[in-house]
Amino acid sequence: MSAAPAATRFVDLHLHTNYSDGSDTPTRVVDRAAELGFAAIAITDHDTLSGVAEAIARGLELGVEVLPGTEISAECGGRETHILGLGVALDCPALLAELATLVEGRGVRAERIVEKLNAAGVPVDLDRVRARTGDGSIGRMHIAQEVLELGRSRTVQDAFDKFLKSGRPAWVPKPLVSSRRAIDLIHEAGGFAFAAHPGVGNDRRRIVELLQQPFDGVEVYHSKHTPGQTTEFMEIARERGWLITGGSDCHGTIKGERTEMGRVKVSYEHFARLKDALGRPKTRNARNVE
Fold first, then answer.
1. Which of 101, 94, 69 is nearest to 84 (CA)?
2. Residue from 250, 262, 259 nearest 38 by CA
């Protein structure tokens, strides 16, 4: 049977697994993508590549293309921003070293958050938090799950609102890398750097500042982008000759029963252009890590 035309095939290039703050294993994420009829996906866990190999193996079994990726926690203009690295090599020493540093910093942050929760009378156990992610990237989501299971919040989101957000009793800032270094590291690993969901949490001035960075593309399609934002970012990408990506940013059922996968269907043509670009010699200027 021949493959469907690209115009009728869809991809989701922003998905999380339990190696960061998703509820599902990489295998289950690929299974769900296959069930929904996606031709290709990207695993983009926060600050780690640990779940990608498992997803690729499952994708080969089910006929779903899996693009290696990660979502790097970065800083731009004094504020946190997220940068997607798509098509990165899984064995790039420079990228792996930086991701390991970020994961280590996340572990230290988790310890401090748990200490603050304990001091506030919420008996979260750090070992139970660590067990939720194994070799992956620990985050506030894992701690929020423990708060929920202790009966100290109504939902995962309520745990954030009560304890874990900025200004709340157990707030601790996340370790970040500069946006330029994140972009350079992605390039060093042979991938392309995209501004992740620029329409989420950013005002007009902030978006303009962010998109001055030397990205290769922008996440045009996202579950939280408005139709107007999608149109705006599409126009920016076309004006600058940037690649276009998008996805649901699905984390499974970790925040409740509702899931996002399937709500955002990006045309396969954007994925095909990305693959084609990845296969060509790189000519960009920002190639070396400073």
1. 69
2. 262
